[in-house]
Give the backbone structure.
Amino acid sequence: MPERKTLERAKRDKREGKSASTQAGEFVREEIDRVREGKHGVRSSKQAIAIGLSKARRAGVKLPASKSASPATQRKAKQDSEAAKDGHTKSPTRSRATTQALKKESTKPASRAALSRQASKSAGRRTAADRSAAAKKAAATKGAAGRSAAAKKAAQTRAKNKQAASGHHRAAH
């Protein structure tokens, strides 16, 4: 069961007109945190993300599986979305079995390095046009204050990188 804070954040995202994947991101973040806290482990970063997405769908986030997803994933996504509508209780035996199995797995896939690798790999599979369109959409839903803050942060990062590059360059000579 997702934490109340997570559900509230996802609801706020929905109210602000943010995309389903942004809403689902709250659940993924919660799952990563759970693994980092040692509540359970995962086989891979992908598994942690998948669990988060599943929880999001079950909490009512309208998030269909991607068109390129495998038939099994498509089926699971549909099943999760259906589960959001029917109010049946989860089987405690099954739930316990899942948790016990996950407890035996590693917490390493939730590390910064592992998630960074996963994100880079995932971004590499997308086209430049697709990434650009996503960035444009994100900027559009940010609002003026958000855009201003993002621009300031980008400028700071650029300055820091420039400084690091020149410092590195000097040290090389």
User: Anything to note?
Assistant: The chain has two domains: 4-126, 145-173. The chain has a mean pLDDT of 91. The helical segments are 4-15, 20-36, 45-58, 71-85, 92-103, 112-124, 128-142, 144-172. Residues 11 and 113 are 30 Å apart (CA to CA).
